[in-house]
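Thread title: Can someone regenerate the structure for this chain?

I was given the following input by a collaborator and told the matching structure tokens would be attached. They weren't. Posting the sequence so someone can regenerate them.
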Amino acid sequence: MSAVLDTNVLIYDTFEDSSHHGEAKVKLDELKKWYIPAIAMHEYVWFMKGEEIDLSFTKSKVVEYVTHEKVEIIPDEVDGILFSAERMDTYHDYNDYVILAVARKLGEPILTFDHRLRGIASKIGVSIT
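Best answer:
Regenerated them for you:
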């Protein structure tokens, strides 16, 4: 099974003291392929910056994810940007819809711990793992 990963999956996987760390780790271990939208990697770095995480740690984690054998980084595409721009109700929605556009295009479920994103995914026909 494969899935498109939301940024929060990477964050929960990274930090052992996070509320969903164990679940994130188990779900990632079960997947054969991790599709990571480029926007999710950018959000991951922005999160680390906002939390003032040591830059060398952030750099090593980005390299770890990007070079992981299960990972395929999915670049941003015009269709995904338009899909998001046409549907967003708030600025916060933009990144979520870009991630959902990737899942729709690939025909893959999304892996997220964000209840709001799960609801949007269900409404637009994206399955959730």
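The chain has a mean pLDDT of 97.
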